[in-house]
Amino acid sequence: METAADLAIAAPGPAVKVAPAGAHGVEFELVGAARAGDVAAFERLYRATVGRVYGLCLRMTGSAALAEELTQEVFVRAWRRLATFRGESAFSTWLTRLAVHVVVSDRRTRRARDARFQLAADLEELAGAAPAVRPGAALDLERAVAALPPQARRVFVLHDVEGWGHAEIAQRTGLAVGTCKAHLHRARKLLREVLAP
Amino acid sequence: MNCREFEARLDEFLDGELPEEGRRAAVEHRDRCPACRTAAAELSALLQRAAELPGEVDSGRDLWPAVADRIARRRGGQNPFRSHGRFRWRRVGALAAAAALLVAASSVITAALVSRRAPSPRTPTAAAPATAGALQLAQARGTYEAARAQLLAALAARRGSLSPATLKVLSNNLAIIDAAVREMEAALARDPGNRELPALLVTAYRQEIDVLRRATGIPARG
Q1: Measured between alpha carbons, how far is B41 from B194 in angstroms, rounded to an integer?
Q2: ipTM of the assembly?
Q3: Inter-chain residue contact A119 with B166, CB threshold 8 Å
Q4: Which long-range contacts (CB under 8 A, 24 or more apart) does B62-67 make?
Q5: What is the percent of chain B where pLDDT is above 90?
Q6: Burial class (CB in 10 A: 0-12, 13-18, 19+), B202
Q7: Which of A69, A123, A129 has the CB atom closest to B104's CB atom?
Q8: Which residues, other chains included, contact A108 with Cβ-Cβ below 8 Å and sequence gap of 6+?
Q9: Best mutation site among A43, A61, A122, A180 for testing chain B: the one with the most B CBs within 10 Å?
């Protein structure tokens, strides 16, 4: 069910009438065709961006299975919201923001739904403990990031992998800027510990 | 600036977020303190590696068919939860929650770590109409059972290396996961024509295998 937050991904604005030049222009034309119901055009957009979306979902969730599920959700929602893409940024950038929203929303939904179970809390505690219990282990960076506590992992991925600023991370995740910085600090500290030679 | 202050402001320093006066103080301290210079170099190297991670990751599976199917159903105006049988709308939330349990975790549960009999194959579901989802489920089930058995055996070998607290958590959570999958399979048996449940079950199987794989990486008690 869509909420006001869903609609805040990209407030509708005036449609861009003139296609940008180059690759961006080709992408813009594909979006236009997809908006008109051309699924083949949307598939081309999917093929061009799925690796990026999946990579982001994977790193933010730490779970390949969940990342696949959320990747599908991102593209289904993108199909529904093509009318809100105004062409002011690259399609992949717009899609990335949508993916972050899907990941964050999914986390909130699952946490609320599973509140009565001990499962999530217990297992997150185990996952959070993993890096600290294995000092000096030769984990590569991807595995180390996947083992971070969830909030710390999400902020680290958005800030240090994707290059987002704290203000935008705070806006997209619903966290205060100070809280984002605290999670980032924690993530970096844990990663330094487990990746130390 | 002393070492504690430098460590506290290291993130801002490397992110270029310190005001000029603070940045100068940090540079001066870094230049004269070997330990802090090393810490700054390590964090800088970490951030460099993070920024250089590949922007795209291949999932190894083509997700387009599932996306296209959902788009097509939506375009056709079909309610994806409408079925031909006795499956009730109010059960959807409970089943979705059951599936969600399998993805809530980044850790592990296995039947072999508790005093249970050897894992047996899941109760086969009733014969279903040959929907695409049912065929996918049939194919996934064989792969899932084999992978699950292998992973459970691997985890059983590690039982002695895990703490009692970890074993207790794993035991409790295993029961929840098993119940979730049984509930979905039972629902599918009652409503074999349901188009949504096979995909939900395949996702659940995949998620359980993912959890079991990650479980083999749980650190041994120190």
Answers
A1: 57
A2: 0.75
A3: no
A4: B63/A50, B63/A54, B63/A68, B63/A71, B63/A72, B63/A75, B64/A43, B64/A46, B64/A47, B64/A50, B66/A72, B66/B199, B67/A46, B67/A72, B67/A75, B67/A76, B67/A79
A5: 28
A6: buried
A7: A123
A8: none
A9: A122
Amino acid at A59: R
pLDDT value, residue B75: 67
Query: How many contacts, defined by CB atoms under 8 Å, are there between A and B?
Result: 156
Record the tokens describing residue A173, joined without a space.
């995740």
Q: Is A181 helix (H, G, I), strand (E, B) or coil?
A: helix
pLDDT tens sequence across A45-63: 999 999 999 999 999 999 9
Q: Which residues of chain B have pLDDT under 70?
A: 75-136, 139-140, 166, 169-170, 172-174, 176, 195-196, 199, 203, 207, 210-211, 213-222
B19-40 tens-digit pLDDT = 999 999 999 999 999 999 999 9
Query: Burial of B48 by CB count in 10 Å (0-12 exposed, 13-18 middle, 19+ buried)?
Result: exposed
